[in-house]
Write a structure and sequence with these properties.
Layout (H helix, E strand, L loop, with lengths): L11 E4 L6 H14 L4 E6 L5 H14 L3 E7 L2 H10 L4 E5 L8 E8 L3 E2 L2 H14 L11 E3 L1 H13 L10 E6 L5 H14 L4 E6 L21 H10 L3 E5 L6 E4 L5 E2 L1 H15 L4 E4 L5 H9 L3 E4 L4 H11 L3 E3 L5 E3 L5 E2 L3 H13 L3 H11 L6 E4 L3 H12 L5 E3 L4 E4 L3 E7 L5 E8 L3 H15 L2 E2 L1
Parallel strand pairs: 2-3, 2-4, 3-7, 8-9, 8-10, 13-14, 13-15
Antiparallel strand pairs: 1-5, 4-5, 5-6, 10-11, 11-12, 15-16, 16-17, 18-22, 18-23, 19-20, 20-21, 21-22
Length: 459
């Protein structure tokens, strides 16, 4: 296979047998180990049918490059991240396609300290090595060690360091693992919580890992998938629901009424939690929807820092400023004390602690934020010419804008509303986010007006 189109803007994803297969996984593993001059490489995989074989092939590549493999088995991406830091590995590989269709797979790579690859100095050089197969001389082959049990225990230790388990009160929580990799890890967390006396009750939904994904690919962001969690929350009278994507580096919340809590409000909530724990802390956010988060950070005496969207940018910004927390509205949440990496498990533990200590429900915590800063959520438009579509909007609104920000795409702000427009890196899509200061009805009118200017169809 010579097609390298599985190398995307930020990671590696492809259609099985078309542009990604076991041989490609071998070459990626070997190229990553060689380029990073790795002595040890952590390797994990998600619940997809081809993932164990792809991980085995990547491990062969690493070993042939003369590097040792630390196998952690089926695990979430965040478990790979923590294992790299915990065991002082030189690199980490997670075989996962997260929420992509069932006939896809992919690979995520980090270097020492769980740092993301630099695009020019790392990612592109690994890509060229994969294409050229210019393998260097290895004086000896590496060895493989099974660290699955130890790695998970170390991971659990770090997760639970974020909360005071003795503060947890009786709560009923629905957890939807989407038949992905989350199930076994959720079980391990629940067992540890019970051993420490946490009075939590859990209701498991689509819990068993199943590579046929009988309930559909786990992508809780899609409105069509909300009912699978929300309906159970309502029926069970649960306090909240949590749903995970395939490699559980993202989690999605539902309040006790089964209402989906959009990611931009979760960012604000987690920012508040950390600023209560660490006065004057620095909070990083992406530029798409910002007013709610910025208002909370200011009210808590924190320092707000805006970063370009994307895990590599958020992590780089957090490290540069030693920020305690960073969040994206797409439900990626990053933590300084988790090697500046994203986790889908830490957020729900923190929210459970907050609800327990405050005696206020999740709905109570976010309801007023919905009203104060209504948001459209991200709307994707499939258009013939993304540049022309964006230009039509800017030519209409730029003259009246109070500010223009090009941190990521373009954002225009006005007295009582604001919008961000971004082009997709891989598709003919324009992504629109609009937020306001009160008045959801006026927000709907803004969405309608800009939708007409963009044209195309909602994707």
């Amino acid at each position: 296979m010579t097609d390298l189109t599985c190398f995307k803007a930020y990671d590696i994803r492809g259609e099985i047998g078309v542009n990604i297969d076991e041989d490609m996984a071998y070459r990626i593993g070997r190229a990553a180990a060689q380029h990073l001059k790795a002595k040890t490489v952590v390797i994990g995989f998600d619940a997809r049918e081809t993932s164990p074989a792809f991980a085995h092939s990547a491990a062969r590549g690493v070993i042939d490059a003369g590097s040792d493999v630390l196998n952690i088995g089926m695990a979430g991406t965040e478990e790979m991240y923590w294992a790299v830091t915990e065991f002082g590995a030189c690199a980490g590989i997670e075989v996962t396609a997260s929420h992509n269709p069932i006939n896809y797979n992919g690979i995520k790579i980090v270097k020492s300290g769980s740092r993301p690859l630099d695009d020019v100095e790392d990612f592109q050089k690994i890509k060229r090595l994969v294409g050229s197969k210019a393998w260097g001389y290895a004086s000896s082959v590496g060895q493989a060690r099974d660290l699955a049990v130890d790695a998970r225990q170390k991971y659990l230790d770090q997760l639970l360091s974020f909360v005071d388990v003795t503060e947890l009160s009786p709560l009923k929580i629905v957890v939807n693992s989407g038949n992905g990799a989350a199930g076994p890890t959720v079980d391990a967390i629940i067992d540890r919580l019970k051993a420490q006396g946490a009075p939590l009750e859990f209701i498991r939904v689509h819990h068993q890992s199943d590579n046929t994904f009988p309930n559909g690919i786990p992508n809780p962001l899609l409105p069509a998938n909300h009912a699978a969690t929300a309906d159970v929350v309502v029926r069970a009278g649960a306090d909240m629901g949590v749903a995970f994507d395939g490699d559980f580096d993202r989690c999605f919340f539902f309040d006790g009424a089964g209402q989906f809590v959009p990611g931009e409000y979760v960012v604000g909530l987690l920012a508040a939690i950390f600023l209560d724990k660490e006065a004057g802390g620095k909070i990083v956010h992406d530029p798409r929807v910002i007013w709610n988060t910025q208002d909370i950070v200011a009210s808590k005496g924190g320092i707000k820092i805006q970063s370009q969207t994307g895990h590599a940018f958020i992590k780089q910004t957090m490290r540069a400023h030693e920020a305690v927390y960073g969040g994206e509205m797409s439900a990626h949440h990053y933590f300084r004390d988790f090697a500046y990496c994203d986790s889908g498990m830490i957020p729900w533990l923190l929210v459970a602690e907050l609800v327990s200590k405050s005696k206020r429900s999740l709905s109570d915590w976010v309801r007023d934020r919905f009203d104060a800063f209504p948001s459209s959520g991200e709307i994707n438009f499939r258009v013939d010419d993304a540049g022309a579509a964006i230009d039509r909007v800017l030519s209409t609104y730029s003259a009246d804008a109070l500010s223009l920000d090009e941190t990521d795409g373009v954002s225009l702000a006005f007295k009582d509303w604001r919008f961000n427009l971004r082009r997709s890196n891989t598709e003919p899509l324009v992504r629109l986010n609009i937020e306001a200061r009160g008045g959801s009805e006026s927000l709907k009118l803004r969405v309608a007006d800009i939708s007409k200017l963009l044209g195309g169809t909602v994707a």
